[in-house]
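Sequence in, structure out. Go.
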Amino acid sequence: MTKADIVERIAAGTGLTKLETEAVVNGFIHTVKDAMMQNERVDLRGFGCFIVQERAPRSARNPRTNEPVAVPASRIPTFKPSKEFRRQVDLHSGDK
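Output:
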């Protein structure tokens, strides 16, 4: 499913135009990104939470040369689904 598919489904369900719905979806995405860039947690009850996880620095190796490579610490955005959402997905996983 693409963003265009999401916009189309929401527009059909709400009666908003596709342009209005796209503005809302873009606003939601922008808000979540901004919050995460400021290391804020975004909780959506019954759905899940968007969090920023810290990755510690580590050493790896170059598979071609077998030389060690230093991988710096980083911050990555992650999504953790709620227990309710995981349960719903699990119940419907055999519906295909």
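Check: The two ends are 16 Å apart (CA to CA). Helices lie at 3-14, 18-37, 83-92.
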